[in-house]
Design brief:
Blueprint lengths: L6 E6 L2 H12 L6 E7 L13 E7 L5 H17 L4 E6 L9 E5 L12 H14 L12 E4 L2 H23 L3 E5 L2 H10 L6 E6 L6 E6 L3
Parallel strand pairs: 5-6
Antiparallel strand pairs: 1-3, 2-3, 4-5, 7-9, 8-9
Helix pairs in contact: 2-3, 4-5
């Protein structure tokens, strides 16, 4: 275990147990810390091959109020909705959003995803409204929410789908228009096929109906 005044590395049977130990040692609430999961651990068989979960917890500084406000907003909304789930700040400065990244886990967390992430995007929109309520546009921050690592699973699914569509388009010589997607998901498709020598991609349509068309690359 490594520690200083603001950071602790903790090992325990589960991630939740490790978080509770770290919060006690840092004398902090869950919405005052950033939690990095180093390993989720494993139970093994009859104790053989088991591995403890290990986390690194950092107490937020007074200048990182966006992370604190985002955690407070998520906790309040979960309580008002009566959802059995809890948010954990995974990063106070996520590289993708530039702002806080909060992961939500719990018995009812699946309810917050919705069809292809629709409910998650709506929940994230409300959290961002709350966090940026008193901020000027130039000072606003973007809070990114995830539920049970849904984003990484969805990205993997989109990568595989884009590759299958590209193979079909290359084989038939006919373009294929994928289902409507939000901007971040269309970006995943574009980036997945950016280096494909046989197809090109283009976003088409308007608003919520905007989608990606994959076309054969012409010489």
């Amino acid at each position: 275990m490594m520690e200083n005044q603001q950071i602790k590395e903790v090992s325990a049977k589960t991630v939740d147990e490790a978080i509770e130990v770290a919060l006690h040692d840092l004398d902090a609430a869950r919405d005052e810390v950033e939690v990095e999961v180093l390993t989720r651990g494993k139970t093994g068989f009859l104790g053989i091959g088991s591995e403890l979960a290990r986390i690194r917890v950092r107490k937020l500084s007074s200048g990182e109020d966006a992370g604190v406000k985002a955690m407070e907003a998520v906790s309040t909304l979960l309580t008002l909705l009566g959802v059995s789930a809890v948010g954990t700040l995974r990063s106070a400065h996520d590289p993708e959003s530039g702002g806080p990244l909060i992961d939500i886990e719990g018995d009812d967390s699946g309810l917050l995803i919705g069809r292809r992430g629709d409910t998650l995007r709506a929940f994230q929109f409300v959290v961002n409204l709350i966090v940026n309520k008193d901020k000027d546009r130039a000072d606003s921050v973007r809070v990114l929410l995830d539920v049970e690592e849904y984003r990484s699973r969805r990205q993997k699914s989109l990568n595989e789908l884009a590759q299958r569509v590209a193979e079909k388009v290359a084989a038939t010589g006919r373009p294929f228009t994928m289902e409507a997607m939000p901007p971040n998901e269309r970006r995943i498709v574009h980036m997945t096929l950016a280096e494909n020598p046989r197809v090109t991609t283009e976003s088409m349509g308007w608003g919520m109906g905007r989608c990606v068309t994959v076309s054969p690359k012409r010489n």
